[in-house]
């Protein structure tokens, strides 16, 4: 079975460098899950598909709860080639949804 390729936008890569250590540990686990299980992540807290105006497959979940709550948002770029792109990592308050 082919693994998914998980990419980061430049912005998301920079954002990931600024999150606290617990959130970074959770992000690493999420990336592994995305790589091996694909974009549907029902086991992660507050996982959901995001509603967009364009026909874009975007999803998100919480990395850690509390104050602040950290989230990760990703998009399925290509289902056939199995490519996922993380476009946001950071606090819930600043999330682009």
Structural commentary:
The protein contains two helices and five strands. A hairpin with a 4-residue loop joins strand 4 and strand 5. It is α+β, with helices and mostly antiparallel strands. Helix content is 25%, strand content 33%. The longest helix has 17 residues, at 21-37. It has a domain at 1-10 and 38-65. The protein has a five-stranded mixed β-sheet.
Number of strands: 5
Kindly report the spatial arrangement of strands forming the biggest sheet.
Answer: 1-5-4-3-2
End-to-end C-alpha gap: 32 Å
| H/I helix tally | 2
Shape: globular
Low-confidence stretches: none
Structural class: alpha+beta
How would you spell out the order of helices and strands?
Answer: EHHEEEE
Biggest sheet layout: 5 strands, mixed
Radius of gyration: 12 Å
Mean pLDDT: 95
Quick tags:
97 residues; globular; 5 strands; 2 helices; 33% strand; alpha+beta
How is this fold's topology laid out?
Layout (H helix, E strand, L loop, with lengths): L4 E4 L1 H7 L4 H17 L10 E3 L7 E7 L5 E9 L4 E9 L6
Parallel strand pairs: 1-5
Antiparallel strand pairs: 2-3, 3-4, 4-5
Task: Report a brief summary of the structure.
This protein is α+β, with helices and mostly antiparallel strands and 97 residues long. The protein has a domain at 1-10 and 38-65. The chain has helices spanning 10-16, 21-37; strands spanning 5-8, 48-50, 58-64, 70-78, 83-91.
């Amino acid at each position: 079975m082919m693994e998914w390729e998980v990419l980061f936008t430049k912005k998301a890569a920079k954002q990931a460098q600024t999150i606290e250590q617990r959130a970074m540990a959770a992000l690493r686990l999420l990336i592994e899950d995305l790589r091996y299980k694909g974009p549907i992540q029902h086991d992660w807290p507050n996982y959901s598909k995001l509603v967009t105006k364009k026909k874009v497959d975007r999803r998100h979940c919480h990395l850690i709860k509390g104050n602040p709550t950290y989230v990760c948002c990703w998009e399925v770029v290509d289902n056939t080639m199995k490519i996922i792109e993380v476009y946001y990592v950071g606090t819930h308050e600043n999330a682009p949804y």
